[in-house]
Amino acid sequence: DAGITQSPRHKVTETGTPVTLRCHQTENHRYMYWYRQDPGHGLRLIHYSYGVKDTDKGEVSDGYSVSRSKTEDFLLTLESATSSQTSVYFCANADRETGELFFGEGSRLTVL
Amino acid sequence: GQSLEQPSEVTAVEGAIVQINCTYQTSGFYGLSWYQQHDGGAPTFLSYNALDGLEETGRFSSFLSRSDSYGYLLLQELQMKDSASYFCAALKAAGNKLTFGGGTRVLVKP
Questions:
Q1: pLDDT, tens digit, 9 for 90 and up, residues B20-59
Q2: Distance between CA A101 and CA B1 in Å, rounded?
Q3: Inter-chain CB proximity B50 and A99 less than 8 Å
Q4: Nearest to B96 among A35, A42, A94 (CB)
Q5: CB A3 within 8 Å of CB A26
Q6: Which residue of A has its CA nearest to B51?
Q7: Interface contact flag, A56 B93, Cβ < 8 Å
């Protein structure tokens, strides 16, 4: 358990509105990640961070931005939500390069 | 690009053995992980193979062949609680990034 808390856990919003999902860790793990999970696509990496203010794009980063101003918080922002961004979003962290990620409980986002 | 292929669904009875294969095409490949996810839950880590060979952890074992770009997860003495989705994931050295396969849904019947 790497003490990850995601908020909000559920959100319904309308197309065109901004949305921010928050990921908070109680451990000082170096790496943090945002994934989205959709039926038939498994987990796809949106953005990740390898340190404070150090972030990089994943395979499905269009329409998303992230920020990591503190070790413990990793924010995912949808500047203008679209229906295609309806998904379950998982935050994860890792402290070592061993292929072991610790996942939060997920945030279910519905964009109408 | 990167891709991982695994079967979409497997059905077996309690007490049986199931093998979930995973083939990958990944540049900068570092190792292969396996995760379990129950419906409505978060993925949880099962195993990681960086070297060729078999890693055993209780009823679950994982195998990797780097020369064949292939790995598998072996579930033994299946129990009802093993009904879940299982994902293989390739680790890239740069950035400690994991790319996931589409998942294999395992259904265990009495």
A1: 999 999 888 999 999 999 999 999 999 999 999 999 989 9
A2: 22
A3: yes
A4: A94
A5: yes
A6: A98
A7: no
CA distances from B2 to A9, A25, A97, B81 (A): 30, 29, 19, 31
How distant is the alpha carbon of residue B58 from its chain centre?
15
| CB within 8 Å: B30 and A58 | no
Chain A touched by B30 (CB under 8 Å): yes
Model pLDDT, residue B42: 96
Fill in the amino acid letter for B104: T
Q: A41-47 long-range contacts, Cβ below 8 Å, gap at least 24?
A: A41/B102, A42/B87, A42/B100, A42/B101, A42/B102, A42/B103, A43/A90, A43/B43, A43/B87, A43/B89, A43/B100, A44/B100, A45/B97, A45/B98, A45/B99, A46/A76, A46/A89, A47/A76
The structure tokens listed for B93 are 């050295």
State how far the Cα of B73 lies from the Cα of B64, in Å rounded to an integer: 9
SS3 state of residue B81: helix
Task: Write the residue in B2, B32, B102 that is nearest to A41 by C-beta.
Answer: B102
Residue A7 φ then ψ, to 5° = -145, 145
